[in-house]
Specification:
3-stranded antiparallel β-sheet; 20 strands; about 50% helix; binds (3S,4R,5R)-3,4-dihydroxy-5-(hydroxymethyl)piperidin-2-one
Length: about 450
């Protein structure tokens, strides 16, 4: 009874016949044809890529409804963001001609000598990470050289801070920095890319800079084991009292674990486990029986905010990775309930009512990310079935004339489409679905390590 209510609600939200796709065969008691699902994901990726090539080649992002394009990093200047983000996904899907065309564009056109300010965190996870994973796929030394060149420019943001906490923005040409008021995610999401770069170049500076910034803040944990999410790059002090698992903080925690996976860093492994245990003990709260992690005061544990974003879904997977699978499953169940209720998980949710705080969403990958990380732990098909729902719901609501788009209103019927495909779509959810549904030949899933942007940093079969 409850299930059929959910299903009817889901169908009416999406509108139209495509909605029928949302009910997974697994939920109907029939087994999924995973190979067919994988083929569908690949076909949609290729279809989207062809539109990007035709309408936005070398531009940062395509506008899939109008067929236009937009900048991401620097006004008036493109850095081929979507193309770079797509590279290792193309390679994993064995779309080799498309991969090579992208690599050729990078070699001929990608130039970082630009008099413009770039967001250091985004440039690292999207561009340094994208170039590094494409280098690992192909062995092409030019891709490594490009990654190093960009990282060298970003390093100015670390060097300018007395504590080694990077400023938020750096001018690519002059190295001038700005915006010292920053946060855990933006000071602590480097060790995966910078560590791999150090390993590949033999220059330890990148790895050391990334690790130093993480240790600075880990040393400021409260007696509860929590950190505030906001910090000042010049004073080195917290500038808020809010501990957050999602916005302002999320990937910091992922990178503690990645440092262990990639580099055998025992100290950061311990820190990952301690931070997750502190979150569960002091931030995990139940509302209407569901587990949420609202913001709390990092010293007292008192709740300071009642929003949770869709981005917080990553934590379900991370909890599984660090050895807290029951808690990870519990938190995934919360987002699964949101997926059942809203079809597309709202960008921000009021945890006290489970109501949406915003109507728009950014075509987000975190739920599929969590399904992949939990599935890699025990290969239970139920995670694949949940990701299949996520995939079908996205296809039913976000597919537009020239690609996949963010939504401006998930409460209308049908949902209202925006006109932007974020760069991470090319690197994240399509790769998560592919890894979950295909039996990918070009990666050893037992060795797989993905960055926060899903760039493959270990496990490739070349
Ligand atoms: O860029 C993406 C990445 O996963 C991240 N933060 C948010 C983006 C996707 O929602 O670290």
């Amino acid at each position: 009874m409850i299930r059929s209510l959910h299903r009817r609600h889901a169908l009416s939200l999406m509108g139209g016949t495509a909605a029928a796709l949302a009910i997974p065969l697994a939920a109907q008691g029939r087994s999924e044809d995973w190979a067919a699902l994988a083929a569908d994901v690949k076909a949609e990726f290729k279809w989207s890529w062809d539109h990007y090539v035709a309408r936005a080649w070398g531009k940062d992002e395509i506008n899939p409804v109008s067929g236009g394009q937009q900048h991401f990093f620097i006004e008036g200047h493109d850095l081929g963001l979507s193309l770079v983000e797509a590279l290792d996904t193309l390679w994993l899907m064995e779309l080799d001609d498309e991969f090579q065309a992208g690599v050729d564009w990078v070699k001929a056109n990608l130039d970082f000598d630009v008099d413009g300010d770039i967001q250091v965190f985004e440039a690292n996870i999207r561009l340094v990470g994208g170039l590094l994973s494409a280098h690992l796929c192909s062995g092409d030394p030019v891709l490594l050289a490009k990654a190093k060149e960009l990282a060298d420019r970003l390093m100015k943001a670390f060097d300018a801070s007395p504590h080694g906490l990077p400023y938020r923005y750096v001018n690519l040409r002059t190295g001038a920095v700005r915006d010292p008021e920053t946060n855990l995610a933006e000071i602590g999401t480097y060790i995966a890319e910078f560590g791999v770069l150090s390993r590949l170049t033999g220059d330890a500076r990148y790895h050391d800079a990334a690790r130093r910034a993480m240790l600075h803040t880990l040393n400021m944990r409260s007696d509860l084991g929590l950190m505030a999410a906001n910090i000042h790059a010049e004073t080195g002090q917290f500038i808020s009292r809010n501990a957050s698992i999602d916005v302002y903080a999320d990937s910091f925690y992922e990178y503690l674990w990645d440092a262990w996976e990639l580099f055998g860093d025992e100290q950061l492994k311990r820190a990952a486990q301690e931070c997750c245990a502190a979150m569960v003990a002091h931030q995990g709260k139940r509302y209407d029986g569901r587990l949420w992690f609202p913001m709390v005061d990092y010293e007292t544990g008192a709740v300071t905010g009642t929003s949770q974003t869709v981005l917080g879904g990553y934590l379900a997977g991370l909890l599984g990775q660090v050895g807290m699978k029951a808690e990870g499953d519990d938190f995934l169940a919360t987002y699964t309930a949101m997926q059942e209720r809203y079809v597309i998980i709202p960008e921000s949710i009021d945890v006290t009512t489970a109501g949406p705080r915003t109507k728009r969403t950014g075509l987000r990958p975190e739920y599929a990310d969590a399904c992949l990380n939990l599935w890699l732990g025990d290969r239970d098909d139920r995670y694949r079935a949940l990701a299949a729902i996520h995939w079908r719901n996205m296809k039913a609501t976000s597919k537009a004339a020239y690609g996949y788009t963010s939504l401006t209103d998930i409460t209308t019927r049908p949902m209202t489409q925006g006109d932007n495909c974020p760069g991470y779509w090319w690197s994240e959810q399509m790769k998560y679905y592919w890894l979950l549904f295909a039996e990918p030949k070009r990666v050893d899933l037992g060795q797989l390590v993905l960055s926060t942007e899903a760039n493959v940093l270990r496990g490739l079969r070349t």
